[in-house]
Amino acid sequence: MAQSATLAILKVITILPLIMGKRDVMTNDNYWGHRLLSRDLFISKQNPQISQIELNQFWNAHESLAGQNIDVYLVDTGVLKSHSEFRENVITLFDPFNKNGLDEIGHGTAIASLINGKTLGCAPYARLFIAKVFEHEKKSTQDLIIEALKVILKHHLTKLTAEPNRKSIVNLSLTTAPTAELLSIIEQLSLSNILVVIANDNSCRTEHIFSFENSAAIIRVAGINPNLEPLASTTADIYAPGENILVAVKTDDTAYKELTGNSIAAGFISGLAAALWSKVKSFTATDIKQYLIATADTVNDLRIAKRLNESFAPKWNTSETGVIESIKPNQTFVRKLRCSSPSKEKLRFKIVNGFLPEGLSLSEDGIISGEAKLKEDAKPDHINYFSTVIRAHCDDKYVDRNISLIVTTNFSNVKSNQQVIAAVQLAKCNMTDAYTAMNSPDNMAAPGQDAVNGPPDSNFYFNGWIDCCFTSSSLVRSHDRSLKKISEIRVNDLVQQNGRVGQVLAVIAIPLRKGRKVFQINNLPVFLTSEHPLYGLNETILAIDPANDLPFKTEKLEYGCVVKTLNGAITVNSINEVSTEENEMLYHLYVDGDGSYYVGDILTHRKHEAEIFALTTAEDQFQNA
Known about the structure:
Radius of gyration: 34 Å
Largest sheet: 8 strands, mixed
CATH topology of the largest domain: Rossmann fold
Oligomer: single chain
CATH architecture of the largest domain: 3-Layer(aba) Sandwich
């Protein structure tokens, strides 16, 4: 005699037909499971106060095509495909009763609505295949179920030839005392990278427990009530809402009811798994099971599934500081960028902005290597600074990171001076913060950029403030009033400032970026970019092309303007663009005090906000010299 199988029968609590879109779901308890588990979009779709524009924005941002490229095989009573809850993505695969998968009991329609229903489903874009194994009665045979599962396995293996990226999930919301043959075919499904979702027996009969030698891709599910308590004393891999849940039913094309049972919980988990798998195509069925369990909330020793919020975009490791400081000129350099992929998909890397030092290259695997070449000889204490935005990407997800590369012969000497770090880092932050920034793993994000392209993780990063502005031919007025090429200035040199002598804390050099232009004023030995600020009269600050992002008001420098000089002031009578070489090095000095220094006898203003002071004042050094 053939073994019989019975549905994990749903207990009807209330019969409450619902016209979709007419009820405020925020006040209806029969939506509690959807709010807890399914998706925030469900609330939006049912709330008439949410506009269609807002709804579309939310959908595109959070739930775009949930379930796409996922097939869910529902071994059940069939589905009422004409129900308003379903799209045309419900297909009959197996029906020995020749009813085209029509649900004559109602159980399968309810479960299907939680899987890929338009408003109730976790994965509306999943494709659902009907395997009808129950007709009028709520009993079937294991032989019929085994036959259906064999058809599913064959269909899964065949479709992979034409659609290798499609994934498969089988939902078994039925109960029986399983035979060895039934357990065997279920294990075969799981070993073929099919996730099998099995609802626990509602009555907790021990003889109805499904036990497997290999259950890595088999997940057993039980239901909970709104108090997050189990519906019955049973053990499951994961728990999901199962009491008083609104589902579609077969009564007519717009009928809904509240139903209860472990079958409901299994439907939620199948839909949730389909939504997850569509986000991370590189996951295996075992990965999906492990992820659902690992991310579940633990309440009273129950692992309760929760909605998916992770984007699965690549993530830069906390050990990737975003600053590569150990590059020496003309020496072999190899550095692997540290980024990981939550989806396990292989990462690819590319430069999306800026460039690397000449002689270095970035491989697709994220390795920066080569020998850095500089246009000019590097002084031992100069910091030759390069900034580039590198993108790590896989599938359709990516994350950008501002990578700062410092080429210098002896960076450790520079880094040991706290004031130098404050100067190099970002003068918007104070000394302690700047020093912490250079030595902290939080110094990772480009401005306005984190692992998911949101706000920065930290206020500490190299950015536009560090742009250099003077070519190597520009002459700086030293403390003894002699002139010295800016490229020859060294750390701890003393230079003339606005009414005092200042100590050079850092010398920064970066290549001239494409699009930046260099100008000469009054034929003086000052060759600067258009945005660098200069002192005018009455403490005004002038620039040829004032930058919007400077931390102080800057006015336009034009013919007839007056700028401060070492000997008083001069009127600007010429501003001429000068030719430059590709990637020519530009320089900038970080000087203590107010940050000013004279270039071509014109007093330059600092580009940063805060003043920086040396541990030993420049006046003391000058007196001791």
